[in-house]
Write a structure and sequence with these properties.
Elements (H helix, E strand, L loop, with lengths): L6 H9 L1 H17 L12 H14 L6 E2 L2 E2 L6 H14 L8 H27 L1 H12 L2 H7 L4 H20 L5 H18 L5 H21 L6 H4 L2 H10 L1 H26 L3 H17 L2 H5 L6 H7 L7 H14 L3 H21 L11 H14 L4 H28 L1 E3 L5 E3 L4 H20 L8 H22 L2 E2 L5 E2 L4 H12 L4 E5 L1 H6 L2 H4 L13 E3 L4 H9 L4 H8 L7 H8 L4 E6 L1 H13 L2 H4 L2 E9 L5 E9 L6
Parallel strand pairs: 7-8, 7-9
Antiparallel strand pairs: 1-2, 3-4, 5-6, 9-11, 10-11
């Protein structure tokens, strides 16, 4: 693309790079941190990470992640490791109060590092102005902001991938220093420790770009023009990889060795084979989607809504960016665009398409490249009629998306908590009305800075990014709130409310029983078991498939819990949960049941003798689940005080 239109902006950005980069990172830190203080979990995965690192602090075992005393094998350990120092700080106060802001700090830091990596990558590719503006676009993207406040591996992994891509780019553009090779190796290793072998995908994109460049240069040297087919000539691709084999082998080994060392160390320290769990999780995630791939691809633009809505408000310019890259590569081979396209497409096709089609959070590692591509097109593309048309189409799309999102919220009287689940808050008009007004103001601001502003795209980016962030306080103020069982909106939030209710009648050590599926559906309950801790210990719950009679017996005599667990797990001695059940002298017990589980247990309770039945209390509670749906939970317990 033609870089002349914003040459003055590039000069200014180059002269004031440290100051402007510092302001960008400050902006990123403030925006990313906003919303971390909410005292509940955004989605169903957050409490799993929070509880796992909570147990790490109590056990001192950083190698074998556990959840409720059982091995958590779904993810490698890096996300827990980066959270561990902050969890340790929280442990100094016995995890009392709301420590979620502290536990969310690692993802905030990773988000800021992603913005920094995006800025440096954009600067290396297309100049300092593109780098800075790409950072602003990334920080103001809807998906990026939502993920920045969540305790999940996705931001940690995306941060590793972003920086690994930066080092791959340096190597691709000719920097063959040991510093670049080492940087690529370290970031590859961290990426694999975050999310397994999927961290190798940017490296595969690098290798493909090197091979394409080799084939095109070979054709040009022979005086022939390169075609699409000749660019993908297999012999040339292999020859290029062979010439670059030393660094590729270094990066591959660096990624594999720490990962397998961790698997071995986790097995030694816990006795559990985490390889089996990770493999099972992969096949579980792909089995439900791989059969639908052709069905999804048969539709028009399977990624149309994802790239535009999830990349809101900048998704409307994706079409212009893709057109600009296509035209630039067609007119003259440009190795920078080839590198971006290869990394983007390899990740998109292999990870997003095959692993979990159209899952929003899996698009996160692609947002830095999308931000750079969109920013490059907006700032550096030739200002011709096509550019003006695509620019106008883009801002019309942005305004359409803003209007659609506002309309959906108004019509349903609800707000999205995590881009997937919506919660009704329409009865709180005094909170929703300012949010809707803020959305309308955003609409008007974007309209003003878009109409006939195609010659001032930098102003468009800056004002648009700031306008998005101004809406945030109104949005977070409209979200659900929980202070206590009596102070909440629109309903008590399940994990906190349930443990608060148990704490009201718990006397000393309380055994918490449930069916195994209960905690899979409501994992936040396990995290908030810390409210039942009276002496700085780690409290676990027991999920059992035992017969109804055995469960009721455990309610009456909770000290048989260890025996129940051992019946279902012959190797019980290596489970932290079993050790807890065995050493704890329980004074009482509660049984937590979903509506389905309660209906299965109710016939047995009805068959009990009247003298026993009158000692059993069943309490029904209406609450908001971690999936932000209204549901019921039944608390079953013995109450000897009812004996006459």
């Amino acid at each position: 693309m033609n870089t002349k239109p914003e040459s003055g902006l590039n000069d200014y950005s180059r002269k004031n790079w440290p100051l402007l980069l510092g302001l960008l990172l400050l902006f990123s830190a403030v925006v990313s941190f906003y919303g971390t203080w909410l005292n509940y979990f955004y989605d169903i995965d957050e409490p799993k990470y929070a509880r796992a690192v909570y147990e790490m602090v109590h056990s001192g075992n950083l190698l074998a992640p556990m959840f409720d005393g059982m091995p958590r094998m779904e993810k490698p350990p890096l996300a827990y490791w980066v959270m561990f120092p902050f969890a340790w700080l929280a442990s100094l106060g016995d995890f009392s109060g709301n420590v979620l802001p502290l536990l969310r700090l690692p993802t905030v830091i990773c988000s800021v590092l992603m913005v920094l990596g995006t800025s440096l990558t954009g600067r290396k590719l297309f100049g300092p102005a593109t780098g800075l503006m790409a950072g602003m676009i990334l920080q103001s993207a809807l998906l990026f902001k939502f993920m920045a406040v969540m305790m999940k591996v996705d931001v940690v992994f995306a941060c590793c991938v972003t920086w690994a891509t930066y080092f791959y780019l340096l190597r691709y553009l000719g920097d063959k220093s040991s510093r670049v090779a080492a940087g690529g190796a370290i970031l590859t290793a961290l990426g694999v420790l975050a999310k397994g072998p999927f961290a190798f995908l940017p490296m595969a994109g690098y290798a493909l770009a090197v091979g394409i460049r080799h084939n095109v240069n070979k054709k040009n040297e022979s005086g022939e023009s390169a075609t699409f087919m000749s660019a993908f000539d297999i012999k040339g691709l292999v020859a290029a990889k062979w010439a670059d084999r030393n660094v590729l082998l270094l990066w591959f080994i660096a990624g594999c060795v720490p990962f397998f060392l961790w698997l071995y160390a986790a097995w030694l320290s816990s006795g559990f084979n985490y390889t089996q769990g990770l493999t099972g999780q992969f096949f579980h995630n792909t089995a439900s989607t791989s059969s639908k791939i052709m069905e999804k691809l048969s539709g028009l633009d399977p990624y149309f809504d994802t790239l535009t809505v999830i990349f809101f408000p900048w998704g409307g310019y994706v079409f212009g960016a893709f057109y600009g890259i296509y035209r630039a590569v067609r007119e003259k081979f440009n190795e920078k665009y080839v590198f971006m396209a290869c990394v983007f497409m390899v990740y998109l096709l292999v990870f997003t398409l095959l692993f979990k089609l159209k899952s929003n959070r899996y698009m996160l590692p692609l947002l830095p490249l999308l931000s750079i591509a969109v920013c490059d097109w907006l700032l550096n593309a030739k200002r011709d009629k096509t550019y003006s048309t695509l620019f106008e189409m883009g801002f019309v799309w942005i305004l359409s998306m803003a209007g659609m999102l506002g309309y959906r919220s108004v019509k349903s009287a609800s707000v999205s908590v995590n881009l997937a689940d919506r919660v009704p808050v329409g009865q709180y008009t005094e909170l929703m009305l300012p949010f809707f007004i803020a959305l309308g103001a955003f609409f008007l601001v974007m309209l003003v800075v878009s109409v006939k502003q195609s010659r001032r795209p930098a102003l468009h980016i800056v004002v648009g990014a700031l306008a998005v962030t101004v809406v945030m306080p109104f949005y977070y103020n409209a979200l659900p709130s929980y202070t206590s069982l009596t102070e909440n909106r629109p309903l008590p939030i399940l994990g906190q409310a349930l443990t608060d209710r148990i704490a009201e009648f718990a006397d000393g050590n309380t055994l918490v029983l449930h069916r195994p599926f209960f905690i899979k559906a409501f994992p936040d309950v396990v995290y908030y078991l810390k409210k039942l801790d009276k002496g700085g210990n780690c409290v676990y719950s027991l999920g059992s498939n035992a017969r109804s009679g055995d469960l009721v017996q455990a309610l009456a005599t909770p000290n048989i819990a260890a025996e129940l667990f051992k019946k279902e797990h012959p190797d019980a001695d290596k489970y932290p949960l079993y050790k807890f059940l065995k050493k704890t002298k329980f004074k009482n017990a509660v049984l937590l049941l979903s509506p389905v589980d309660y209906q299965k247990l109710k016939p047995f309770l009805d068959s009990l003798p009247p003298m026993v039945k009158q000692l059993i209390e069943v309490e029904e509670m209406d609450m908001l689940t971690i999936k932000w749906m209204k549901d019921k939970v039944f608390i079953v317990r013995f109450n000897p005080g009812k004996m006459k």
